C-alpha cells in the first residue's frame, strides 16, 4: 500500500544530498500511544543529558514521590532528574548505561512502591505571560527539560544562548526523518494542543514573532492534527504566528541545520549557534514537555518511546517513565520475535546498537529498534573505494566523504581537517550509499576521537613546553640580573680601590675602611666617603673577604639553590604573558 | 538479553561495485556489436583475448600478492579494463597484441598499484600506450571497414589471420587495410598537403555509426547512474573548442571540430575511459576541469604530436593532475557558501 503523502509546501529551500529511505514507520505509527505499566525498579543515570552529571539530593532509604527532585543540575550546562514514580531510593551506584561502549555510570536506583503517588508539583503558571524569560528558563531547568529529539541538550541553556529579543523565528522540528521512529508523529497526532501551546510559551520566552513547524510529507495525520489546532486558535484567539511547512521526506530532513536550511534558506555553519541567526529550533516533544513544566508545574518524568522493528511482536509507541528497564518496555510490546539479533537505541541511521536490554530508558531514548537478520540485507565485507562519489552526492553537509575516508584511513588527520571532518554530522548517509560497503561514518567518528585525543595531548605538551620555557627564561633573567649587580659591584669596588689608593697615597689611612666596606658588598660607593680610617693590613683582609664572597655568588648563579628558585618565584608570576604572546 | 554490537547505519545494503560495473559492461555491448559489424570478427577476438588475459592476469597477481580472489574477481572491473583496451586496438591485430596489452594493464597499472581503487592511471590506457610505443607497426593494422574490407573476412578466415597471421588465398594484407581518418589527416598534412580539398574521411560514415552506438551505451550508463555527465560533456566541449580555435586559425592544416569529434576515440574515451571513477576527479567542478583538460590535450596532441590519437595520452596526463584538481575543487561545505544567513564566516 503506498504511503499517504501530504502536499509539500512550495518555495522551500531544501538541502544538498540526502537519501530517500524505506521508512518502515508502520505499524507502530498506526497505533495509539500505549501506557507503559509500572515496573518494580527504575534506574536513573545521573548523566543522561549533555553537560555535567546531576548531583543527587536524596539518600538511600529516602521515600520519594513522582516528580520529586532526585538530583539537581551541577553546572550551568546540566539538568535536573526527578522521580518517575513513588518509592524508596534503593541505591546510588554504578549501573549499565545505554551507551555504544556498554559503559556503566553512577545512577539512582528507585524501588517503586506501586502507588505512584505524586509529589507536590512546582508552582503552576497558567499566566506565564507575566513571567520573564529568565523565570521561564529557570523553571525549565528545575523541571529537567532537555531536547527530546535525541540531543538531550538542556533546553534552558539553549534558550539562554539567544540574546533577549534576538530570536525572530521559532522552528518546531516535527521532521522525524529516521526510519522506524514515530514517537513525535504519534505525539503530534494525539496531543497537538500542548505542542502549539508550548510553542506559544516559547515564542513569549524568547520574544520571537513567528513559528514555523517543519513536518515531513509522510506524516499527513500529524499535519492535519496540528493544522486543526492552529486554525482553531486563529479563529478563537486571533493567533496568526504559526505556519506548518511540509517538507519532503528526505533523510536527514530533521537534522536541525538541514531543517533550518529547508525552511529559511539559512545555512548555519558548524561553529555557530542557530540563535546567531535569530532562530531557535526545538523538537515538538520538548516544546510539549516545556509547556507541562511551565503551565502545570510538571517535571519531566516520562517520554514517548517507539518500540518497533521486526524483532518485537507488537510494535507501537509507549509513554514510558524515564528509568524503566528496556527489557520491560520490549515485554510490553509483546516481547521479542524469533531470531532477533540486534537492539538499537534510536533509528537505524544514527542510533547505536546496545549490548544488552537491562539498561534503562533515558531522556534520549526516542526509539527501541529490535531487528532480525531478515529485516536488513547482510552487510558485505568492505571493498576498496572506487571514488564513485555517491557519498559526496548524498552528503547533506556537502562534504567529500571519499576524500575524507582516504585520509582517515591513512591516519592523516591534519588532511582530514582540510576536508572539514568536523562538519560531518554523522548522519550515516555516506555509509548507506557506498557500493563498496565501507563503514565511512565509523571512520569519521574514529578520526574525530583520534583528533580530539591528539589535541588534548598537544595541549598537555604545549603546557609542559611553556613551563619549561618559563623556567629557562627565569634562570636566564636571574643570571642576567646577578651579573648586572656584580658588574655594578665590581665597578664600585674598583672605583673605591682606586680612590682608596689615591687617598692612601695622599692622605694615608683616611678612607681605607670605606673601600673595604664597598668591597664587602653593600655596593654603595657613597658610603666610602663617610668611612673611618683603617690600617693597610685591615684593608687587605677585608678585600680578601670580599673576593671570597664574590666567588660564592658566582658559584650560586651557576647552580641555583632551591632557596634561590623559591625566592624568585613571585617575580615570575607575570611571566605567562610573555611566552604566550611570542608563541 | 545480550546482543552482539554492530555499527550504524542498519539499513538495506546499497548496490555493490559489481552492480556498477555490470551497467558499464552492458553499456559496452552496443558499441562492440557495431564494431564487429563494421570492422569484422577481429574486434571480437580482441575483446575475448584481452578480457581473458586481463582476468587471468588479475587472478595470478592476486595469488602472488596473497589477496582474496573472490571480491576482486567478482567485481567485474577487470573485465571492463580488458574490454575497453580491446576496443582501442586495430581490428587486424595479431593475437598477442591484446594479450600483452591486457597483461601489462592489469599487472603493472592496476595490481602493482594495489588493485582496484588504488591505481593512479587508467589501466586500459596504460596498456594501450605501452602497445603504441612498443609495437607501432602492429598497432596500425586497421582493416578497411564494411565492404571489401576486414568485415568481409569470414569468422574462420579472421581467426586464421589473428592467430596464425595467414590470409585466405591471394588476399594481400594491403588490400584489406586502410588508414584511419586520423592517419589520413596526418599523412596529408605531413606531405605538405591541404586538407580542405582532400578527403580525409574516406568512407568515414562508419565511424559515425560506431560513435552513435557508443553514445547509446553512454546514455544507458547515465540513466543507471554509473557515470555522471560532467566529464563527457566537458571533454567534448574541450575538443570542440580547441579544434574550432585551431581550425579557425588554419583550416588547411587543422581538422574541423566535427572530424575531431567522430574521427577517433573522443566519444568512446569521453564516455567509457575518462569516466573511470578511480582515476578521474571526484568532485563536480573537478570533473569539469578534468574532462575539459582531456579534450584540450587530446586535440593538441593530435594536431602537434607524433601519435595518431591523443585521447589516451590526454587521459593519462590528466590522471596525473587529479589529486591537485580534487584539492582545489572541493565544494563549499554546508554553512560556508556565502549565502549562510546574515554573517559570513571567516577562517
Plain-language structure description:
The complex is a heterodimer of chains A (583) and B (347). Mean pLDDT of chain A is 86; it is low at 514-532 and 560-583. With 583 residues, chain A is an alpha/beta fold. Chain A has a six-stranded mixed β-sheet with strand order 1-14-13-17-15-16, with helices on both faces. In chain A, strands 2-8-7-4 form a four-stranded antiparallel β-sheet, with no helix packed on it. Chain A has a four-stranded parallel β-sheet with strand order 11-10-9-12, sandwiched between helices. Chain A is elongated and about 120 Å long. In chain A, helix 4 (192-206) packs across helix 7, helix 10 (401-409) packs across helix 13 and helix 13 (440-507) runs antiparallel to helix 14. Helices cover 40% and strands 14% of the residues of chain A. Chain A contains 18 helices and 17 strands. The two termini of chain A are 66 Å apart. Chain A has helices at 133-142, 155-160, 183-190, 192-206, 220-237, 256-264, 284-296, 326-332, 390-394, 401-409, 413-418, 429-433, 440-507, 512-522, 525-529, 536-558, 562-568, 577-582; strands at residues 34-35, 41-45, 55-56, 63-64, 69-72, 81-82, 87-96, 104-112, 169-174, 210-216, 242-247, 279-283, 302-308, 316-321, 342-345, 352-353, 367-371. Chain A has three domains: 28-345, NADH-ubiquinone oxidoreductase 51kDa subunit (Rossmann fold, 3-Layer(aba) Sandwich); 390-438, no CATH class; 454-582, no CATH class. With 347 residues, chain B is mainly α. Chain B has a domain at 17-178. Helix content of chain B is 60%, strand content 0%. Chain B is built from 15 helices and no strands. Chain B is globular, with a radius of gyration of 22 Å. In chain B, 53% of the residues are buried. The chains are: A alpha/beta (583), B mainly alpha (347). At the A-B interface, strand 15, strand 16 and helix 12 of A face helix 1 of B.
